[in-house]
Amino acid sequence: MRKIESSKVSKEKARAALSKPAPLGEDIDLDKYAHSADELPYQDDPSQLPVETREQMTQAGVTLDDSSQRSGTIIQMDHSIIHSLASQEGIEVMGTNQALEKYDWLSDYLWKAVAVDSDKYTAHVELNQSNGYFIRALPGNKTTYPVQACLYLARGKLAQNVHNIIIAEEGSELHIITGCTTSPKGEPGLHLGVSEFYIKPGAKVSFTMIHNWTPEIAVRPRTGIIVEENGLFLSNYVIMKPVRSLQTNPLARCVGDNAVVRFNSILVAPPGSTMDLGSRVILDAEGARTEIISRAITTGGDIIARGYIEGNAPEVKGHLECRGLILKGEGIIQAIPELKGTLAGIDLSHEAAVGKIAEEEVEYLMMRGLTRDEATATIVRGFLRVDIEGLPPQLSLELQRAVKASEKDIM
Amino acid sequence: MLEIKRLSVAVEGKGILHDIDLTIKAGETHVLFGPNGGGKTTLLMAVMGSPKYEVTKGSIVFKGKNIVGLPIDERARLGIGMSLQRPPVVRGVKTSDMVAACIRGQASEENIHKMAEKANLIELMDRELNYGFSGGEIKRSELVQLLAQNPDLALLDEPESGVDLVNIALIGQLINELLQKEHPIRDRRHGGLIITHTGHILDYVNARTGYVMLDGRIICEGDPHEILETIKSKGYEECRKCVR
Ligand SMILES: Nc1ncnc2c1ncn2[C@@H]1O[C@H](COP(=O)(O)OP(=O)(O)O)[C@@H](O)[C@H]1O
Ligand SMILES: [Mg+2]
Q1: Ligand 1 centre and the CA of A253: distance in Å?
Q2: Could you say which architecture CATH assigns to the domain B2-243?
Q3: Which residue in A has a C-alpha nearest to residue B147's C-alpha?
Q4: Distance from A138 to chain B by nearest Cα, in Å?
Q5: Domain boundaries in chain B?
Q6: Which of A44, A159, A243, B145 has minimal Cβ neighbours within 10 Å of its Cβ?
Q7: What was the ipTM of the complex prediction?
C-alpha cells in the first residue's frame, strides 16, 4: 500500500518537473533520443561478450576475464541487465527493478537522497526508468574485493535512464567500481543516471567511477549521498576520454556525527568536450568532515570545476582544492570553489589554482636527462596523482592504471 | 673537459655575465666564491643550458664540443649535471621516481634504496619531490639524484648552505663520491664546479682552483684556501681592490 502511495506522489512530482531545466549545463533536448530499447539476452559468462565491447569496458575499469578480484558484477546494456552476480556472502547485487520486487521496503529509499523534481532529467528517469543497479552490504559485512558495475550504451541515439541504489548497512564496508561506457562506433546517446547512496552508522563505502564515453554522448548523472554517524563515503571520479557534454553536481549530506565524505575527481577535456563537474557537501552534524579535491586538465575542451561545502554544525571541518592545468589548445578551465558557514567553531578552507606547466619544473627534470616530452609527461602524471586515503591498494593501483592508459591521449 | 671563453650572458635582455674565462680539466674541482647577486648561479645555469640565460658572446666547450644552443637534456646526456640552489617543488612526483629516472638503465628498487640509504634519505623517497623538504633535505636529495645520474661534470650550486654541521660531513662525503675523490688523482675523470658561500665545503673536497665572482666578472683566481682566508679576514671589498 505504502509503496503504491509513495510511487504515485513521485510520479506526480516528476510530471510537474518534466520541463524544468537544470540550473547548470547545456539544456539537452530529450525528444532527440529514443526511450525504449530491445530486451537483450542474459549472459551467463560475460567474458564471451564481443571483444570491442569488452575493450570499452576494460577502459572503464570493468574486468570480465578474471572475476576472482571482484565481489560481484552487474552489467546493464541499454535497458537490460545482461549479467548480475554477487560472489560474496552478505553482499547483494541485482537490477533495481528486481530489487524493488524482492524488497517491499526498498521504495522507502527512492528519491530520498536526490529529489525527484530536481530537474527534467530526474523527472525523466522517474517516468521512463530503465533499470539501474542495486548494491547492498548487509550489516557488518565487508567486501574483500570491489563490486563492479557497468552501464553500457550499445544502441545509437538511445537514452539510458537508470536509477541506482546503494545501501551500506550498519558497520559494513563496500567498495564499488563503476564503469560507464558506450559502443566505440561513436553514435549520439544520452546517459541519465540517478544514484542514491545510503551510508548507515559506521559503514564505509568507496565508489570509484570511470567514464569512458565518445564525442557524441551527453551525460547527466544525478547523485545524492546520505551519510550517518561515523560513516564514510569516498568518491573517485575519473573522466579522461572525450564527451560531448557532461554536467553533474553530486550532493552529499553528513547527517550523523563524525560522518566523513571525500570527493576526488580527475578530469581531462580534449577539444570538443564540455564538462561542468561539481561536488557539494553539507556538514549538518557535529564533527563531520569533508575533503573535495579536483584535478582538471584541458587539451582544448572546457571545464568548470565546482566545489561547495556548507558547515551547519559545531566542530565541522572541510577543505576544497581545485587545481587546473591548461596543457595546450584553446581550452578553458574555470574553478568555482564555494564555502558557506552558518555558525562559529567551524573550519572551512579552499585553494584553487589554474595555470600551465611551470617551465622551471620542466627544465629541472631535463637537467636530470629527461627529454622535454618525458619531463612534461612526468609532471602531468604527478599532477593527476591523488593519493586517496582509505582506498584499498588494489583499487588505487587500478585507478592509476586507468589514468596511465589515457596518458598518450593527453600528450 | 670544460672550456669557457669570453662568455657573456644576459637574462631578460640585461647583461649579467661579462667576458668569463674558465677552464676545468678532467679530474679537477674548482670553486666559485662571491657575494649574493654576483652572477654565480647565472654561470652554472648558462653551462647547464637553461634558455632563460642567453649567451650573447663567447663559447662553452664541453668534451671538445661547443654546447651553446644545445637543449638542457642533450647537455645532461653529454655528461653535465647540476644540483640547484633552490629547486622547484614537483607535486605528485616522488623523490624515488626521480632517482629512478636518473639511474635510467639500472633503476631497481635495490639500487634506489642503496642510494637513499647513503644519503640518509629513506623517509624522503616516498614524498613528493622537494615538497616541504628542509634546507638540508633539499641539498641531500639533489646530490642523490646527481649520484644516480653520475655526470662527468658536476655543477653544484651552494650544496652546503642551510645545512647543519652534522650533515655537512655527509654532504662532503656525497660530493666526494660524485667527484671520485677515492680514486688516485691520475684516475679521476670527473670534474666539478662548486659554488660556495661559506667555504665549509673546502674542508672536504679537494679543490684545485678558486674564483671570486663580482658584478658578473671573475675578478680573482687562485688557491681556494687563500682566497677564502682573504674573504674571511678582509671581505669581498678587498677582492674588488685587487681588480683595480
Ligand atoms: N631569472 C632571473 N631573472 C632576472 N634576473 C635574474 C635572474 N637570475 C639572475 N638574475 C640577476 O642576475 C644577477 C646575478 O644573479 P645570480 O646569478 O643568481 O647571483 P648569485 O648566484 O651569485 O647570487 C642578479 O642581479 C640577479 O638579480
Ligand atoms: Mg646563487
Answers
A1: 52
A2: 3-Layer(aba) Sandwich (3.40)
A3: A368
A4: 37
A5: 2-243
A6: A44
A7: 0.95
